[in-house]
User: Fold these one by one.
Assistant:
Number 1:
Amino acid sequence: MRATLLRYSTRRALANISENRLVHLIGIGTMAIAFLLFDAFLLVFFNINYWVEAQGSSLTMSVYFKGNPDKSAVEGVTKELLQYPEVTIKEFISKSDAMRILKKRLGSKAGVLDGLEDNPLPASLEIVLSKGRAEDFPQRLQERIERLEVVDEAHYSHEWVEKIQAAMGAVRLTGIIFGGLLFLAALFIIINTIKLTIYLRHDEVEILKLVGATNRFVKVPFLIEGSIQGILGGLTALAILLLCYFAIITRMDLRVGFASLDIMFLSPGVILLLLLMSSFVGFLGSMISLSHFFRI
C-alpha cells in the first residue's frame, strides 16, 4: 500500500511540475541563487580554514638580502640556518628571478616595469619551518638572521596566520547568520511556490477530499514536489559554482609572498550533505505550506 502511494505521489508530483513549469522554474531559479551564495561562502570558508591549519603545522620564512649577494653570502646564511633541525631550505630567488616572477604575475601589465633603470626587488632565500619545541622559535630565528650583515630583513607567514586566525571567529559567526538567512529565504520561496500550486489545484484537492481521500493521500505529492524542487535548486547551484570554479578560480594565481595558495572545490561528502539539505528545505517548506490547508 505504501509503495503504491509513493509511486502514485511521485508520478503526480512530476506531472504537476510539468504542468506548472513556469512557476517551478522561477522557484527553482530563485532557490538556486540562495543556495549558490551559501555554497560559495562554504567554498571560501573551507579553503581559508584548510590554509590556516596547513600553515599552523609548517611556516614559511623569506630571508631578504642586501644588494645582489654572491654565492658565498648565500652559502653563509644557508649554513647558519641549517644549524636548526626545524629549518628546511626551499629555494634561493635571485633579483632577476624575483623580477621574472613579478612580471609573470602582472601579465599584460608587466610593461610598466620596463622603465626601471635598476631592479629594486631583493634576492631572497625561501625556507620552511616545522613546529619547533618553543612557540617563539620563528621570532627568535627571525631576530638572529636579521643580525647577519648580508641580510636586510626576514618575514615569516605566521604573522599572516595570526591575523587570519583572529578573524576566523568573526567569519564563523557571519557564516551562521548568513547561512540562517539563506535557509529562511529558500524556505520562504518553497512555501510560496507550493502555496501557489495548491491554489491552482484547489478544486482538484476539494474533489479528492469529497470522495474520501485522506489528508496523507493528498499531501504526499506536494511534499515530494517540494523535495524535488529543493534538490533541483541545490543541483543547479552546485553546477553553476563548479563552472565558475573551473572557468575562473582554477586560472587565478593566488599567492602570499611567493607561496601559492591552491583553492580546492567542495568535497564529495560536503556536496552530498548540501543536496540532502536542499531536499530537506524543500520538504520542510512544503510541510509548512500544507499546514495552512490541512491538519497535520
Number 2:
Amino acid sequence: MADNVNVAEAKDYRKSAVVTTAVRRKDLRIPERMQAWVLVGADELTLMEKPVPQPGVAEVLVRIDAVAVCGTDLEVISHGEPALIQGGMPFNKNFTPGHEYMGTVVKLGPGVDEFEVGERIAVEVHAGCGRCERCREGMYTACLNYGMNYGEHDKGHRANGFTTDGGFAEYAVNNVNTMVPVPEDMSDEEATLIVTAGTAMYGLDVLGGLVAGQSVVVMGPGAIGLMGVGVAKALGASPVILAGTHRDRNRLEIGRKLGADEVVNVSEEDAVAAVKRILRGKGAHYALECSGAPAALNQAARMVSRGGRICLVAFPQEPVPVDVAHLVRNNIYVYGIRGEGRSATRRAAALMAQKRFPAKLIHTHTFPLAQVPTAIQYARERIEDAIKVVVKM
C-alpha cells in the first residue's frame, strides 16, 4: 500500500476526468486482458493483468466506469473477512476486491434480455444462490451457501468483491439480478452511491419500512449514516436526528443538507439527553446505528421509546456488554443487517433518480485506477475529511 498521497496528482485527475468520460462511453470494444488490483497479503494490493471474464447464463459483462471505496473493502484488504474465497481467506488467491461499482453493459450472457449492450447500470453485491431457504425468502444477503461457488462446492452463490472478483478492475461479470439502470443525467460518481443508499434503505425496511411521520435517529455520519438520513427523509420520517462527534462537524452539516431536522454533536451534549430534549421527553420510534462505537447499542436502547426498534448497520471490533434487561423490559427490538437485501437497492436507486435527496454531497474525492492504494488511504485515514472516495476509470 502507498505510504504517502499525492494531492496534486489527485486534483489534476479530477480536472481531466470529465473530458475522458464522454469519449470512453462510446467505446464498447472488449479487450482480451484487463488491468485489475489483486489482493496478495494483508494490506498488500498489486496491479496485474487478468483475462477479461466471460458472462454465463443470466450474467452480463460490465465495463466498470467507477467504483467507490467502502469501509468493508478496508476490512477485507486488511483482515480478509468477510471475504471468502475457495473456502478460506482471500489472500494470495488472485482475488480482486471492491464492490460498490457502476459501469456499462458490454456483453450479454446466454438468454439475457433484461439489459442491452451500452446500458449504464449500478450493481449491488449479492446474487445469492437462489436455492436456499433465505434466498427464497428474499434474504439473499444472508444466503446459507455464502462462498459456495467453486469446484464441487459450486451452489451458485455470488457476492462480487467478497466471494468472487469485484470492482477494482476494468471489467466484471454480474448476475442480472444484481443490476439497476442508471439514468443518463446521473454522474458515474453518484451512481456508485446507489448501493450505499440501498444499505440504508434495507435498514429502514427491516425496521418497519413505513417511517412516514415517525422519528428516526441516525447514529454516525459516515457514508451509510448520511444516506440513511437522506432515505429516511425521502420516506417521510419526521424528525430525522443525526448524531456525530466533534470530528464529524462537517459531516453533520452535510447531514442537514441531506434532510436532517436536528443534528447532535455528542462531544458537546449527551446523545441520549439530546434526543429526549428534541422529542420533548419521549424516545424515538427508530434508531439506525451506523457508528460501530462500543457504547452505541446501549445508547440507542435509551434513545428509542418502549416498543422502539434499533437496526445495527455497523459493529465494534471487539465484543461489548449489552444491557439486555433494558431491552427486554422495554420491549425493544434489535435487528442486524448485512448489505442491501430485499431489492432495497432498486428502491434507493428510484429515490436518487427522482432527486429526492442530494446523494452526491457525500462524494468527496476521485482517483484513477492506477491510484487505488491512494484512494484506500484517503478513505481509511479520512484525509481531507474524505467521506466517499471514488475510483474513476
